[in-house]
Amino acid sequence: MAEKIIAPYGSWKSPITADLIVAGTINLSEVALDGSDIYWIEGRAAERGRNCIVRRAPDGANQDITPPAFNARTTVHEYGGGAYAVLDGIVYFSNFSDQRLYRQARGAEPQPITSTEKMRYADGVIDARRNRMICVREDHRESDHDCINTLVSIHLDGDTAGTVMVEGNDFYSSPRLSPDGRWLVWLAWNHPNLPWDGTEL
């Protein structure tokens, strides 16, 4: 039996630490469907907070998609946004360390499809008819703090920075295509508003 230790009030050290509690914690987010497969992101405390894209096949088997060197997380709007999109087994995701977009075919290593310029990407939606992704882009080439937000089109086979589709507002989020691909909608807001103060659709 362990020896009893008497400590002054407020100074007792618990053997149950915050690190011990969160070590096995997994945060689940961004569920997506692709045919009969289900995808999601697991935020893994045991892997220093890495966000891993996981696929569940129809037979119930789970598989990590993003390799250990990749972290599917975007810093658009500083706090993030949609970090990946998937179509026909191909995953497109924003990597945390460089904020580039990557394309990862099933069983292959991720390949960058955007340049190394200071850009960030989020909230991507795949436009299969036009072989492109439409997403939010933050341009940080002039300043880390006063970035330019736009909606851009990124060619799925690779693009330098994308083609601007919508500009003029301070912030954009959540671009979505109509089922027939003819219409695009999005959310936008401007300083001094936060999204819950004044957002336009």
How does this model look, in words?
This protein has a domain at 62-189: TolB, C-terminal domain (Neuraminidase). The mean pLDDT is 92. It has one helix at residues 18-22; strands spanning 26-34, 37-44, 50-56, 62-64, 84-87, 90-94, 101-104, 111-112, 119-127, 132-139, 148-155, 163-166, 171-177, 184-189. With 201 residues, it is an all-beta fold. A 4-stranded antiparallel beta sheet has the order 1-2-3-4, with no helix packed on it. The protein has a 4-stranded antiparallel beta sheet with strand order 5-6-7-8, with no helix packed on it.
Cα(first) to Cα(last) distance is: 65 Å
Return the structural class. Answer: mainly beta
- Let me know the largest β-sheet: 4 strands, antiparallel
Please state the CA-atom Rg, rounded to the nearest Å.
21 Å
* Shape by Cα distribution: globular
The CATH superfamily of the domain at 62-189 bears the name: TolB, C-terminal domain
Give, in order, the helices and strands: HEEEEEEEEEEEEEE
Q: Would you report the number of β strands?
A: 14
Query: What is the CATH architecture annotation of the domain at 62-189?
Result: 6 Propeller
Give me the number of helical elements.
Answer: 1
